[in-house]
Amino acid sequence: MIVRKLSEVQGSDRHIHSKGWDSVRMLLRDDKMGFSFHITTIHAGAELHMHYKNHLESVYCISGKGEIEDKATGQVHAIEAGTMYALNLHDQHTLRAFDEPMVMACVFNPPVTGAEVHDESGAYPALAE
Amino acid sequence: MIVRKLSEVQGSDRHIHSKGWDSVRMLLRDDKMGFSFHITTIHAGAELHMHYKNHLESVYCISGKGEIEDKATGQVHAIEAGTMYALNLHDQHTLRAFDEPMVMACVFNPPVTGAEVHDESGAYPALAE
Questions:
Q1: In what order do the strands lie in the sheet with A47-50?
Q2: pLDDT for B37-56, tens place per residue?
Q3: Domains plus CATH for chain B?
Q4: Torsion of CA A4, A27, A86, B29, to 10 degrees
Q5: What angle (nearest 5°) sits at the alpha carbon of residue B49, between those of residues B18 and B111?
């Protein structure tokens, strides 16, 4: 059994910071769960363009408000506490946080590796390229 | 892209009720994410004995307080908002919620199927048998 507290992982090398967001990796590939699990904060006012070509991701909003734009359809979905979105089609999307940070519980399949995250930490948005 | 709100799934056939807990299945196997994602509430005062022989599960506490006992070691870990535990060894465990409900974000690998949950909804604790 693995037990970890958010406060313990914050500030460690599993806590990744980038422009407009930061992410606390509670579970990575090495934990051998078959997925990774991150508590990611989208900073207030941030707008992020993202495209995970190699991963499926689900995101559950714990707190905050914002929106996600599906680039394939142009549709915009409101996000608030209790909203989940799943990028089952590797969907290109734009994520916007409004006046307060959005705290999100994120699951990646296949699991993110620490090394991959470290290499690409600034490149999450750039994965669209 | 799949977008669902907790409030929309509550009360649907994806919202499973059992003794001491209920679970809102935000993502099931049919969603083809390779995992399932549930918002599960452990009711105040509940004590649950569980053993998922066929699944790996991670659980992140969004709110509430309680504890988890690892049956293999006897060790008891406090649970509060921000605590995550992962049953990477299919760990037998006892989960207890204290004076308020514990709201948990749960990930299962392989994903739970709706039918499986329906058949076994009362049998989560009994999976230990």
A1: A47-50, A93-97, A66-70, A76-79
A2: 999 999 999 999 988 888 99
A3: 6-109 (2.60.120.10)
A4: -100
A5: 65
Closest residue in B to A26 (Cα) is B84
Handedness of CA B4, A73, A75, A54 (dihedral sign): positive
**Reported ipTM:** 0.91
Q: Do A109 and B82 touch (CB under 8 A)?
A: no
- SS3 category, A92: coil
Q: Give A67-111 pLDDT, tens digit per residue.
A: 999 999 999 999 999 999 999 999 999 999 999 999 999 999 999
From B6, B60, B86, residue closest to A105, measured CB to CB? B60
Q: Quick one: pLDDT band at residue B120, thresholds 50, 70, 90? A: very low
Tell me the residue length of chain B. 129
Residue B15 three-state SS: strand
Contact B88 A35 (CB under 8 A): no
Strands A56-63 and B21-27: unpaired
